[in-house]
Write a structure and sequence with these properties.
413 residues, binds magnesium ion, 3 domains, binds thiamine diphosphate, Rossmann fold, 5-stranded parallel beta sheet, 7 strands, two-stranded antiparallel sheet, single chain
Length: 413
């Protein structure tokens, strides 16, 4: 594939029609970046040759030359305060993932798609945003939703079968945790477009998985965002599986980040178990998007340590040895070692954080232990503005059955 700087600004070519004389905005951003970094368009838009990693699995900070950075793909180390905040959220996120898996086994939640092992992606996706920005999560991103500040019990309400999402998306600027794959990307692009038309400087974080990148909606969302030059970060958590389908059966692209260039946006890949690198890459992506550079695609290389959901048996399609390999790259242990080594975290600090995580788990046990008040008649509401005769008939039948149940219950007391 060849992309030349000229190709990015066809409007400026001799003989262009007058109404094409202005280069399209996306092209402006790319040529601007190319000038700024003194690199080629390919080197700007294509991901760096290696994934960006700052702290290795043993918790050691890599030397600058070993972080996978290249000119135009350079990332400053995040500040100590941001790193400590991220570690606290990692510990809380891990505790929440494990608590929820237990609550599912106890029948207190209907389903939980655990992000155990992916907590660094979850935490970084939320922490890099400013208050006025939007987050569009999937069903696997409950920890990102909580890290954004949504109450833990409200966050998990959707997983107990309540038809409400549990929180007000507009209030928190967090979309509903989406189960229909990739529809959230279109919602995200729509919000970014609206914000741009209103002149707001909102950045939108649009999350999806590796499998979701094969969906038609993925293409439509990325193309629309690139053509309209919208401030969206497409954040792909490549956890290697779409339920039982491994990545190799899903895509033969050199990497998922390489898909960006086909839309005319920049892509980057990052170690998804290294919260330091994730924050560095996503913080810069947010700054670029807010500054008017258009959309970006960031692929995080991570692993789903547990089954797809409680309804799945992962031992049927993957080897224990593969899981063990990823256990050694654990994002929480890695960060603990790194921060301890730098003297930013000691035993007291770690105990305080563990106690906070335990308090959140208690809140979840108590909140989800309470039965939800259910009104069976809700089944018939909001289906049609004018209920059909059949619905009215069924509603009356149900009301009658419920009344008879209630009176027989009274009688047997
Ligand atoms: C439109 C649509 N098709 C199929 C499904 C069924 N489905 C649920 S999760 C999933 C796999 C998604 O994999 P990936 O995008 O990698 O996300 P992960 O679950 O690994 O986080 C599929 C196919 C769905 N929810 N929506
Ligand atoms: Mg996946």
């Amino acid at each position: 594939m060849t992309i030349s700087a000229d190709h990015t600004a066809p409007g400026s070519a001799p003989g262009s029609a007058p109404d094409q004389a202005q280069p399209r905005p996306a092209e402006n951003a790319v040529t601007e970046a190319v000038r700024k970094f003194g690199i080629t368009v390919e080197d700007y838009m294509l991901p760096a040759r290696h994934q960006i990693q700052m702290v290795d699995p043993e918790g050691r900070l890599l030397a600058e030359g070993e972080q996978g950075t290249e000119p135009g793909h350079e990332y400053p180390l995040p500040g100590d305060e941001e790193l400590l905040a991220a570690y606290e959220q990692l510990v809380v996120g891990r505790r929440v993932n494990d608590q929820n898996s237990a609550l599912v086994r106890q029948g207190r939640m209907a389903v939980y798609p655990s992000s155990h092992g992916q907590e660094a992606c979850q935490v970084a996706a939320a922490l890099c945003l400013a208050e006025g920005d939007w987050l569009f999560p999937t069903y696997r991103d409950a920890v990102a939703v909580m890290t954004r500040g949504v109450d833990p019990v409200q966050t998990m309400t959707i997983f107990r079968g309540d038809w409400h999402s549990g929180y007000d998306p507009a209030k928190h600027k967090v979309g509903i945790q989406c189960t229909p794959l990739t529809t959230q990307l279109l919602h995200a692009v729509g919000v970014a477009h609206a914000a741009k038309l209103r002149g707001e400087d909102t950045v939108v974080m649009a999350m999806c998985g590796d499998g979701a990148t094969s969906e038609g909606d993925f293409h439509e969302a990325l193309n629309f965002a690139a053509v309209f030059h919208l401030p969206v970060i497409f954040f792909v958590q490549n956890n290697k599986y779409a339920i039982s389908v491994p990545l190799a059966h899903q895509s033969v692209a050199p990497s998922l980040a390489h898909k960006a260039v086909g839309y005319g946006m920049a892509g980057e890949r990052v170690d998804g178990n290294d919260v330091v690198a994730l924050l560095a890459v996503l913080d810069r992506a947010v700054a670029l998007a807010r500054g008017g550079s258009g959309p970006l695609l960031v692929e995080a290389n991570t692993y789903r340590m547990q089954a797809h959901t409680n309804a799945d048996d992962a031992t049927r399609y993957r080897q224990d040895s593969e899981v063990a390999e990823w256990l050694a790259k654990d994002p929480v242990a890695r960060m603990r070692t790194y921060l301890t080594g730098r003297g930013l975290l000691d035993d007291d600090g770690d105990s305080r954080i563990a106690a906070h995580a335990e308090a959140v788990a208690t809140q979840l046990r108590e909140g989800l232990g309470e039965d939800v008040p259910v009104d069976p008649q809700e089944l018939f509401r909001h289906v049609f503005s004018e209920p059909t005769p059949q619905l009215k008939e069924q509603a009356a039948m149900l009301a009658d059955e419920l009344a008879r149940d209630a009176s027989s219950g009274e009688a047997s007391k």
